[in-house]
Amino acid sequence: MARISQRPKLSLWKYIFLVSLGFLVLFLVRLNYQLMVHLNRDAAVGSAAAAGSNAADMRRNEEAKVDPKALQKLSMLRKEVSTMKEKVSTMKGMLNDIKSNSNSAANTANLDLSHPNDHLSGHILPTGELERITCSPSTSKAQSDRMNKRFVEWWSHSACPDQAWMEGIHTIFDVANAISNKQVALDSSDGSKPFLVLDIGCNKGYTSADFLDALSPGTNMNPNSLVHAIRSIAKEDNTKYDRDGGVCNDSDKPLNEDRESVRGVEVHCFEPSPATYQMLTRAHAKLMPREDGGGGTAKWHIHNVGLHEVNGQMAWHNACASAVGDELCTIVPEGTEDAITVPVVTVDKFLEDTYQSTSASTLPLVHMLKIDAEGLDPAVLTGSTQLLTQNRAVMVMFEFNPGLSEKENPHGMWGKNGNPHKDLLEVTSWLDTLGYDCYLDTRVPKGKEVGKVPDAPALYRITGDCLVEEPRVRGWANVVCASRKFGSVAWGLRRLATMVE
Fold first, then answer.
1. pTM of full prediction above 0.90
2. Are strands 306-307 and 340-345 parallel, antiparallel or unpaired?
């Protein structure tokens, strides 16, 4: 995920779009230049042929000048120029929107980021909540058709998403804190309530590293430093971990440009695999040896437990005992040969024990509830019912993989063989009743992909009948949700999900 400088009290989105706008303009100039060169070259060839050839030669040259391939190339160039002009115009409009709303960002009572002409994004209500909207049947069908076409062309469209919503996440969470505290204005001096991230299914720790880098870059815990620590540990053990840089090449992600800021952040990393847990503990010792829990510090807590919808002990595949990052590390039926026992806990129970949240009113604000539970994501969500019902999770992200239940060693709840079976739309509908908007997170077209589906958005909206059928993914996909109670946060995601009307 891209990173931007997160200096306090600066218009972060403004700089994002200014830089992006600059790149788009440069690209547009380059395309126009190529078009002019191509046309001039064809004209020169035609003139030379006319001067030195007879009438028959001239006719052949005329035919050459209208070669279908050349015309097709020119047509594609013109189309790209037209597309880039439209994108430049759109970005200018979005930049103007941001400028016009920047003054109200400091006052959550007046924080209305909606565009007056964007009837598909809705408005932030006087309560600070984002209004719930629904898609028309025609919009839903167009959205589903566009998404399914995209997945046919690019199976991993949602497997390793760009997570465009991560831009400026520090500011987004600051606004969420202000809304939670019912403050009229943002109070940046309130360091008593750190950002709280629950990284469930931590694996090699790259999600933890992403959020620590985004929210407190001065701690030097980031994807780049983490991969070096992991490889150092592997070298000490004379081994090599599979995909040590992350399945999505997470270690290559750009770092936060602000390398000095340190903010109170707590990231809880839950990893049921004893082998992976030991590796993470050693990485923690290398990267954050001075972590002492003092005020204003970033903390990375690592727990050797699984998350589920019940509390107790469960049997896990024996791959959990020895292999770091093995996807077979999941819950298996009781009595399975060579299975190991690992404790499991619900999110609600963990928060109750850790933060003494004996009632809904004392629940801490969880800024990100991230779940990657090898197909058991619906169970973990069920175990978070109190947190979600009270809208004390600002954002939720989880993985959807219907193919897990169809493998040689089937597991998980998604897909036709899920046990118990769960559909994505069933889960997102439940979250909708609790006040959450959900989206399918994606990778936007880049390089050779540009032009295949020009209107492919950063997010596909699910909530509000905007998808009428299960996504036809051929692998795993990622879902991100935001509580409508935190209107400005939910609006930020909704505006990334451009719709087909």
1. no
2. parallel
